[in-house]
Amino acid sequence: WNVRGLNKVHKQVEFRNFCRRNKTAILVVLEHKIKEGKAGKIIQKMVGKWECVDNYNTDPRGRIWILWDPNKVKFRVGVVHKQFIHGYVTTQSSGFYLTGVYGTHTIADRKHVWTGLTEVTNAVTEPLIIMSDFNSTLHGDGRFGGNAVMDGEVQDFKKFMETASMIGMKCLGRRYTWTNGHIHRKIDWILTNATWVHKWEHIQGLIMEPLFSDHCAVSFPLGDRQNSGQKSFKFFNHIAEHPDFIGVVRKGWRGITYPTMRGVWQNLKKVKVLIQKLNTKEFKGVIERVNQKRKQLINLQGLMSDPLAASRLAMDEKQRKVELERSINIEERQLFLISLQNIMAYAQQMIIMNILCFDMSLYFTGLEILHSTGIYRQL
């Protein structure tokens, strides 16, 4: 996905939500515009403990990241080039080569990427998939609006497809992958080799809505079917910082008292339900407003898949993006303030809280009395 910059907070939030919403396992990120010194912190903020490989060593701007969730897939780096990163992906049930490509804007500079990719693809006998923004169309109908496509613009791309025996994956969704509101181009591609087609002929790609970018994300299913059962319970730190949290836990822990692990299990289930209610009450309204704005933008961008409608709706899309950015920034501030207020309220509670003898004995458990000045047995 060519994200066209990830420096702004609202884009980082949307990127994180995109990965969660689509259950992303591995992602090629292009033109992120993040300096090397800031990359680690921003990646951690967006995707947590995911792993990453970049090409800062070959291009100071490091236009390419490949990010992956190590709990779902593994990625072994093979070739790091100024315009692409190539490596091997291992999933739970299979493996394949993946190449993430960002082709530069000039025909002369792109000649290096065609040469490098031809060498890589000819050396591969296993399934191979290329996720790319080539900055180039392949056919004359790959552009709507603006100047007509000239043969010189596409001949290198066509030659590569023939020499490397690559095939464009059939994709659902939009026809064009980039637009400025007036001109539409298909320049983002999913390409595969013949081995991939023989093994996974049924797999189709998807051209998704661009959200905050002017490029559509392109995706494909890995094929490892995930269990689609009930959503697992997730515990977030901001819940523990709420002043009612301790009371909720105490309330849930009362009642059932089996003298075995069954009692612990039953009480934990009660606590989980109460914590979910607390989280919904305090935070759902804040998040729903952002989800509503996001849905409005996605629906509008769906209408813009028709180039004739896109020009008419371009200003509306711009306004929707501004509204979504504003809502995300408000959400981030509100969640921060709620968290800060809860911490302060909880701290004040702790300052004036009565300390029971039982609590004191728990705090001092394991301390050597003879080595602890000022602590006596008179509790």
Automatic annotation (TrEMBL):
<protein>
    <submittedName>
        <fullName>Endonuclease/exonuclease/phosphatase</fullName>
    </submittedName>
</protein>
<dbReference type="InterPro" id="IPR036691">
    <property type="entry name" value="Endo/exonu/phosph_ase_sf"/>
</dbReference>
